[in-house]
Design a protein that fits this description.
With 61 residues, the protein is low in regular secondary structure. It has one helix at residues 32-40. It has a domain at 16-45. The protein is built from one helix and no strands. It starts with 31 loop residues before the first helix and ends in a 21-residue tail after the last helix.
């Protein structure tokens, strides 16, 4: 049987707090599709970002 490579789906959202994801059990928000993906895959619960705040991107003209 030939080896198969894993399918990787990386979802990055902008300005979404962790307490708005249903699969973490901290919200009444309904996120059934993300819940299913999290149940079948992997969720990174502790991450680090070099830029924790969302800021506007200014056009340089």
């Amino acid at each position: 049987m030939p080896e198969t490579q894993p399918n990787i789906l990386l979802i990055l959202t902008d300005q979404q707090r962790a307490d708005t994801l249903g699969f973490l059990g901290q919200t009444p928000c309904k996120t059934p599709h993300l819940d299913r993906l999290a149940a079948e895959g992997l969720c990174f619960e502790n991450t680090i970002t070099p830029s924790p705040l969302c800021t506007p991107r200014w056009a340089i003209g």
